[in-house]
Amino acid sequence: MSMPDFKFDHEVKFPLGGFLPDPPAAKTVREPARDIPVMAECDVAVFGGGPAGVCAAAAAARAGKRTILVERHGCLGGMSTVGWVTMIHTLYGTDKKTKIIGGLPEEFVRRLQRAGAVKNTAGDGETGDWRICGETAKFAWDDIAVSSGVRLALHTWLAGAVRDGRRIAAAIVENKSGRQAIIANTYIDCTGDADLVRRAGGATTLGNPEGKCQAPTLVFRVGGKGQGATPLGKLQAEFFKTPMDYNGERYPCYLWGNPGIWDGGEQMMAGTRVLNINASDGRDFTRAEVEARYQLRWVLGRLKGLAGWEKTYIVDVAAQIGIRETHRIVADHCLARDEVLHGQVFGDTIAQGTYPVDIHSPDSPGIIFDHLDGRRVTVGGDAVYKTSRWDGEPASAPKRTTLCWRAPYSSLVPKDFDNVLAAGRCIGADHQAAGAIRVQINCMQFGQAAGTAAAMLPPGGSVRDAQPQKLRDALKSAGAPLL
């Protein structure tokens, strides 16, 4: 029996429009003063339960500190779970021999390995990047937090902060129980968008020097991929040939993805990208989510017409679009692009990595990768790769031998506060350095360092009192192979 062709009185019209609230007017409403009940008093309060936040809270709790972790979703893990970004980058340096990352980031990987829910991309099964199951990752993050003694507040939003000079006196949250306060000795901002620092009036920078942010991506999973399916790069090139229906523009995405852990016919796809978005703005955040889903539907339609993808069906769509960049704290040290690419050594190094400077164009198709070995790889919207050098050397010059880049503790310290640290993609960095440090394996390291430092502070102490060598020694004792 054929399905009837239903007609609806109200159909979506392209290009999209009219689904956002009107821009805010000048009118205001005064909120009456009120006493807010205190839900927790603790040594360390962490806001944001993504990879950085879980590692920050676990590190502080394992050091014996009363620690609370506030997360707005119903599970921990952030982009690794609700965002379905199922790539954890390598634990090894560019030589593929020297381990440069351990501690809690490695513990997360090993917990997934024990569950059979992770696969390494290298032939040796160890030195490459890790493809993970985002659903199993929820269990691993729960185990890390709960076994460490972290107290959890899920479905809880950071709503504000009470500032007393150079200190935050209380953080204000909202959940099903209403408006409440958290009082802590040290606060750690792992919100990704520097929400706590901004709510308390601290200085931040937004995006690139023009205030534009790297474009966000909504991840989705499909099933039904056939043998010999058209590879993702060729899919991108094919998609780019035809304007998208929902806005009439060219497909802007750098298309990448991972095969399923449990089913080879499944494919995780970072297959959308929405341009000109500042996801720390409520209207833009909403627009990004809605437009990404319409873009996704266009991709699915095109996908079904290409070899090996004819039987494609949607498995799921991430609960939140993946944000690459918004606000970053103005820190005691702003990590710079050249410091990353040249492997600058710091006396207070607390994290190491090899992920390249990776810039998704804010307002057009295309992406640029600057690698530690000197290569610059530019990928156009048409999926054409062009290779040059970022260091001015000829293409035939020997590759650079930088083992890894480093990040200092001082980049976690907001210049305006004495009892606040930041971890994750909102640490102090310039636009291009942020393109290297923002991925999950690095955010975990920043979190572990922030939580470890917070645990060293006496009541009323300043985050600047954490002695770099003692902090580094503590991280090494916890498994971080700092060079």
Describe this structure as you would to a colleague.
The protein is of the alpha+beta class. It has two domains: 244 residues, FAD/NAD(P)-binding domain, CATH 3.50.50.60; 154 residues. 23% of the residues lie in helices and 22% in strands. The chain has ten helices and 22 strands. Strands 1, 2, 6, 7, 8, 9 and 22 form a seven-stranded mixed beta sheet that branches. The protein has a four-stranded antiparallel beta sheet with strand order 12-13-11-14, with no helix packed on it. The protein has a four-stranded antiparallel beta sheet with strand order 17-18-19-20. Strand 18 and strand 19 form a beta hairpin. The chain is globular. The mean pLDDT is 97.
> What's the CATH class label of the largest domain?
Alpha Beta
Radius of gyration from the CA trace? 23 Å
How many beta strands in the DSSP annotation? 22
* Mean of all residue-level pLDDT scores: 97
What overall geometry do the principal axes of the alpha carbons give? globular
Going by helix content, strand content and strand pairing, the class is alpha+beta
Strand content: 15-25%
Largest sheet: 7 strands, mixed
Number of helices: 10
Which residue ranges are poorly predicted, with pLDDT under 50 across at least 5 consecutive positions?
none
Domain count: 2
Q: Any idea what the CATH superfamily of the largest domain is called?
A: FAD/NAD(P)-binding domain
Question: Could you provide a short overview of the structure?
Answer:
This protein has 483 residues and is of the alpha+beta class.
